[in-house]
Design goal:
Layout: E1 2-7, E2 17-22, H1 30-38, H2 42-50, E3 59-63, E4 72-77, H3 86-102, E5 107-111, H4 119-132, E6 151-156, H5 163-187, H6 195-205, E7 211-216, H7 218-223, H8 227-233, E8 241-247, E9 255-261, E10 263-267, H9 276-279, H10 287-302, E11 306-317, E12 329-331, E13 337-339, H11 347-360, E14 365-370, H12 374-380, E15 384-389, H13 392-405, E16 408-411, E17 429-430, H14 438-447, E18 455-459, E19 465-466, E20 476-477, H15 482-490
Parallel strand pairs: 1-6, 2-4, 2-5, 5-6, 9-11, 9-14, 10-11, 13-17, 14-18, 15-16
Antiparallel strand pairs: 3-4, 7-8, 8-11, 12-13, 15-18, 19-20
Helix pairs in contact: 3-4, 4-5, 5-10, 6-10, 8-11, 10-15, 13-15
């Protein structure tokens, strides 16, 4: 779908659908009042009859029947007039495109209110609109496609320079391309999206000026002594991979940032086998890796003045005669030893390798994303990701960037009181705690491998996969984290 900016006279514009965002206080004012007069009171009558209150995420569609140039008018609810923030506009843009598809509109116009013609609003509306168009239909033989507009025009009521707004729309398209790549990777069947497949996709999509991708096979992984990745891979017929991506800007970078993504392409639990129902969506266990690959793929065009490392350890976690066993001990590059008490707590074992490597690069900060614990879903549900950090400034910036992206992060404590729960009597630490505070003990485990580098751990187990269709994402992989990280990198 193409996104365009254009000066629009809303009562005269010829389009299949004219979307007008409204708050609860704006239903009888301004453009809505003028549209109602043009439609001879039918708009206001339908508002009253339907009980439409402009609640966020709702809309009201009215056919004009030739009373004006636009074929349909769509009132898009923004919620209470006090509510603001980019995500309100992101949902509005997605809702407008969804309704345009219902009436098979080839083109739709989204009117930007005079006081909201800003880069933040334009970017959010464009993001929402583009996110709504995502579909994963590769394996459907009888896909029933819904209509989608070919063009969404963002209507302005004032002339003048729109270069900054055009750049905001372009940046939105870049961000959404990274999100869609991450969604595609998660949505692929696990027998397709193996470690070697992820490596191939990283090579195929992470290209451009300043960006290099190196893929380590099993022999190189053994040479590098990445013992956690090798241990988890023992039960698999598929060899592991370690994907090492590096982006360098043209000039001297302001910062160096390391991004680490958990790449378990399918998690059976290993010998600590999961119940069958718990395995049904375990292709999502590489969503952290998918997000990092999605971020890296757009950096050459986004061109932040930041050096970015992308590290992805990847394998599946399966049981066979050679699989690692509860009671095994792993010795890591930083000298730490880990007793494996539960082979289903494998994500932290492979992340530990990547965290040690990243810390050796001495970045200004490092951030890992992982579908790490069910305990985080119990604590925060499916809409919020858990955030753990040893650096208050980094945590605060991530929360702010997530809020602007519509990706909620909730900070949880790295409570030192629970450090005792991961002590082992045969090794330095063990890979699971005592059963409670599971998200915290998992974060404390990871902290053992970050040295003194400012670090944040995002437990995205809940929001990485949508269990039902949403206005900005159909059921399946969400690409959670991509836009938050791009916001962070752009602001450095």
């Amino acid at each position: 779908m193409d996104i365009k900016l254009r000066e629009i006279a809303p009562l005269r514009v010829q389009t299949a659908l004219l979307a007008v965002p409204v708050t609860d206080k704006g239903l009888g004012e301004g453009l809505v009042r003028r549209l109602d007069r043009q439609l001879k009171g039918k708009l206001n009558a339908l508002v009253k009859r339907s009980g439409f209150t402009a609640r966020r995420g709702t809309s009201l569609l009215v056919a004009t029947h030739g009373a004006m140039a636009a074929g349909h008018v769509l009132l898009v609810g923004l919620g209470k007039h006090e509510e603001d923030g980019p995500h309100v506009w992101r949902v509005a843009g997605a809702g407008a495109v969804k309704e345009a598809g219902r009436v098979w509109a080839d083109e739709a116009v989204f009117m930007l209110p005079p006081d909201q013609q800003t880069e933040a609003v334009v970017g959010a509306v464009a993001e929402g609109a583009l996110l709504n168009t995502y579909r994963f239909t590769k394996y459907r033989s009888n896909d029933k496609r819904t209509g989608q507009p070919r063009t969404l025009v963002l209507g302005r009521t004032a002339s003048g320079s729109s270069a900054a707004l055009t750049r905001a729309a372009k940046r939105a398209r870049l961000a959404v391309s990274g999100v869609c790549l991450a969604r595609d990777l998660v949505n692929e069947p696990p027998s397709t999206a193996t470690a070697s497949y992820l490596s191939e996709q990283a090579r195929a999509h992470c290209r451009g000026e300043g960006l290099k991708v190196e893929v380590w096979g099993k022999r190189k992984i053994e040479q590098m002594k990445l013992a956690g990745l090798l241990a988890v891979n023992q039960g698999s017929r598929e060899e592991p991979r370690f994907i090492y991506m590096r982006y360098k800007p043209k000039g001297r970078p302001q910062k160096k940032v390391a991004l680490i993504g958990k790449g378990i392409t399918f998690d059976s639990g290993g010998l600590s086998l999961k119940p069958a129902r718990s395995m049904e969506t375990m292709k999502l266990d590489m969503a952290g890796a998918a997000a990092v690959i999605g971020v890296m793929s757009v950096l050459p065009e986004l061109a932040p003045n930041v050096e970015v490392l992308g590290l992805v350890p990847t394998t599946d976690n399966l049981p066979d005669g050679g699989a690692q066993k509860p009671g095994d001990v792993i010795r890591y590059l930083n000298g730490k030893t880990v007793e494996v008490m539960n082979t289903d707590a494998e994500g932290r074992l492979i992340l530990a390798d990547a965290l040690v490597l990243a810390a050796r690069e001495k970045p200004d900060c490092m951030i890992n994303l992982a579908t790490l614990t069910g305990a985080c879903i119990v604590a925060l549900g499916n809409e919020l990701a858990g955030l753990f950090s040893n650096d208050a400034e980094l945590a605060g910036r991530l929360v702010e960037c997530g809020r602007d992206a519509g990706e909620g992060l909730w900070q949880l404590p790295l409570a030192a009181e629970y450090r005792e729960d991961i002590k082992s009597h045969v090794a330095d630490i063990k890979n699971v705690g005592g059963g409670s505070a599971g998200a915290i003990t998992a974060a404390l485990f990871l902290q053992e491998f970050v040295s003194d580098v400012p670090w944040a751990h995002l437990d995205i187990a809940g929001p990485a996969f949508a269990g039902k269709d949403q206005v900005t994402c159909p059921k399946g992989g969400t690409g959670f984290g991509v836009r938050t990280l791009l916001n962070l990198l752009s602001g450095m």
